[in-house]
Amino acid sequence: MVEPTGLEQMVCFQLYAASRAMTAVYRPTLDAHGLTYPQYLALRVLWHRGPTTVRDLGKILDLDSGTLSPLLKRLETQGHVRRTRGTHDERTVIVDLTDSGHALRTTMADLPAQVACAVDLTEDEFIQLHQLLGKVRSMKGTA
Amino acid sequence: MVEPTGLEQMVCFQLYAASRAMTAVYRPTLDAHGLTYPQYLALRVLWHRGPTTVRDLGKILDLDSGTLSPLLKRLETQGHVRRTRGTHDERTVIVDLTDSGHALRTTMADLPAQVACAVDLTEDEFIQLHQLLGKVRSMKGTA
DNA sequence: CCCTTTCTAGTTGCGCACAACTCAATTGCG
DNA sequence: CGCAATTGAGTTGTGCGCAACTAGAAAGGG
User: Fold this and answer.
1) pTM assigned to the model
2) D5 C1' – B11 CA distance, angstroms?
3) What is the pLDDT of residue A4?
């Protein structure tokens, strides 16, 4: 395979490859519900937080409106969310789950277990990886 | 990992977010040369291996022809690579660096150092992360 | 109170990723 | 050998991700 021209470079590539491999694990189940991984992430935020502005979704998922606007539009078309203008600040748009969107939470309740099973890491390794990825995410230029 | 604590889900999201944060570190330098991160990855393989078929590039980068064909076409338009049909097997296409493509190797020689500097990890942490990501990449369904 | 500055969401454009497909070249099995 | 199955590259279509931009609403200073 690729000879290391420097460990950092290898790590960067592995990050890129591992991220895609990860979403590939989710794909079969998500496909069955007509969802993509980013759409699933947005739904997860709504399941935990309830009604949320596009702005807050962006801060939480680290995505801008250029990505979120069409994504949420598709979730709305699918009937999983509703989008309403904020009343006290008409710039904001509040995203809220429909019954269909709420229902998905229980329908896909076993997804975490599936993923945990596919990724063969111990509890300690999960925690280590969690911490290391946290450090990567908080690097310079990501403030 | 038998009991899903929700941590796996967090790790998956962090993988997704960290990967994008990583490429964002490369972006300013790559932009200056009119390159994207996947294009840079392809060039790195060619710098190290010399002439390589599209098929082998795909195996190494874990990308299919649907992604590579247009990407390599753009690198060819930019003048960094040449694409020629294989002589022994006319199905294959061999990708090779032009002078311009070779020159980029020295022009961007300081990029690894930039990245290592931005990502504030110790040598040991880099190695740990390398190993953990390797495990993630070799999970079930990624064979 | 007006006017500039800032902020939120959305739109456009481009380049990945990936599925599904086409087509030609090669392989392999009878 | 003949021909079906496989393989390698490319094309098409969809949905991100991100830069650059727009439109409209709010904030704030004079």
Assistant:
1) 0.93
2) 42
3) 39
